[in-house]
Design goal:
Largest sheet: 2 strands, antiparallel
Strand order of the largest sheet: 1-2
Structural class: alpha+beta
Distance between the termini: 22 Å
Strand content: 5-15%
Radius of gyration: 16 Å
Helix content: 25-40%
Amino acid sequence: MLPIGIYGTEKILPVGALLPDVNKASVAFGEPIEVADVVKMFEHIKNREEKRQMIVDYLMYRIADCLPQEYRGVYANET
């Protein structure tokens, strides 16, 4: 998996706009992630839903690392 952060699209088509505006968006690529390694990191967790959520959160933090701080939302700070 390759984490990719895309930001600035809100300037191209702002909320409520009917037509797109000429503007720039950015794309940032993170380091590749071996999904099997991520699954292995959480294999000790027995609860299936908890394990799934932890894997998703881990991947989302890796995607958030590709974004400027103001775009990271709930993934701004890893807990």
